[in-house]
Amino acid sequence: MKALACLLPRGLFGRLLALLLVLLAVSHVLALTLMFELDPRGPPPPGPALAAGAGPWAPPGGAPPAPAPGAWSEVGVADAGRPREVGMDRPGPAPGAGAPPAMPRELRAGLLIDIGVRAAAVVLGAWIGARWLARPIGRLAGAARELGDDLDRAPLDETDGPAEAREAARVFNAMQARLREQRDERRRFVAAVSHDLRTPLTRLRLRSEALADTAERERFRRDIAEMDAMIAATLDHLRGDTSPEPFAPLDVAALVAALADDEADCGRAVTLVAPAPDAHGAVGVVGAVGAVGAVGAVGAGTALSAEGVAPRHVVRGQPLALRRCVANLVENALRYGGCARLTVRDEGGAVVVEVADDGPGIAPERIEAMFEPFVRGEASRNRATGGVGLGLAIARDIARRHGGTLALRNGASGGLVARLALPAHG
User: Fold this and answer.
1) pLDDT tens-digit readout, 168-195
2) How many angstroms from the chain centroid is the CA of residue 204?
3) How far apart are alpha carbons 324 and 320 in whole angstroms?
4) What's the CATH number for 246-423?
5) For residue range 290-328, what is the model confidence (pLDDT) as tens digits?
6) In the chain, what are the domain boundaries?
């Protein structure tokens, strides 16, 4: 195959032209073969018989005798009062012979066969040629889809396909290499910033322990904890899609159940709610998740309730990243609504997780702005009630990295509903 590929033209135009030439030659040979094979009298006889006028295409009665070179022939003219004229033999039917004979039926059938075979060959060749020429474009499109999930995917083959496809593969591989370098540089930057920011905080924490005044020491501790939470949230946002965690099939229902177990000791009001059965009688799950890994702290004091069965709801994702995404939504619901009710279900080829609360909701014109970094639902500067303002921004970034969506809406009976939709796997 490689030796044959070396004989093909390098450009797309040359390959298309070669395909058309081969197609015309094959259709011509095939049409002539079918014409002779389908003729009941068989192929025409050899040359001498044809010269004598034999064969299916000879006129009835055989061919007329050829006149001698330079001979004159009489042509009668039926015109009263005029003598008969003698003239040179002229081509065409003799006067009074009528219209020329109709095309033989066998010839008409042969022409129809020829046209049909050529038309079928053109259609088949166009279909094969389109798939052949579009194959490199399909590979490029598939690589572009995979690039969003995995920057470390194998590069495209730069030696296969026409010259245009090979050039596109080289450009795509160069772009992938640059994106990978930028990601690695971003990881190094985040690691350096994390170290540089937390080192002074550690010194402040150690010095605060030496304060004799207990009240002053407690104020220092709160301020340091607030600064540490801000740094953690900012670094999580900067880290974004640079996490090296691999993508793998993940059961969202199992993830939710595990998070509910982790939150049981915290006493937070996170509830699993089983939705109504679907058209097939299956009951979707619900799950509950606590604020594990979320930014800031939420006051405890209410009990955790968990009900329902957990069927499988599989997506392809990063387990820790999705845990952080849902945890941030629950953190937001607990902070502003006092409770979080989670529902997990299949919906039109997607796994949907909804987090509802009993809070005051958000003005419709401000809903989209809540996903901007450092925008908080509570207008005060109090971190205990207003948070850092990065939880929803981080959650949306994670959802988009998984090919999903995250949206907010006000509930029909009050409160806010966060809807996370992820494409189902398999």
Assistant:
1) 899 999 999 999 898 888 878 878 877 7
2) 51
3) 6
4) 3.30.565.10
5) 333 333 333 333 333 344 434 568 999 988 889 888 888
6) 246-423
